Give the backbone structure.
Amino acid sequence: MRIFGFIAGLLIGQKITDPTSGYQALDRRAVKFHTRDSFPGDYPDADVLVMLHQVGLRIQEVPVGMRVNASGRSMHSGLKPLYYIYKILLCIALNLLRKEPAA
């Protein structure tokens, strides 16, 4: 979370503390962007923040309260964390290489 927050923050020019929470408040333009075929379907996190910044949407963090998982187990187990790291880094790199932002 901290690594991807640092990377996303560096790329969009503002501090990002938790790009992985999944909580988002969206205006009409952001909702339209999120319904595109190019929007990632599995782990849309730091890569989406970079995409939103590239198309000119404003990003603002707002504190929220998080609760402990009732089962006490992480949803990320086995090879999922490795896949997640690979996928997010690849998506961020591909977003940066696009000639035109996907508005």
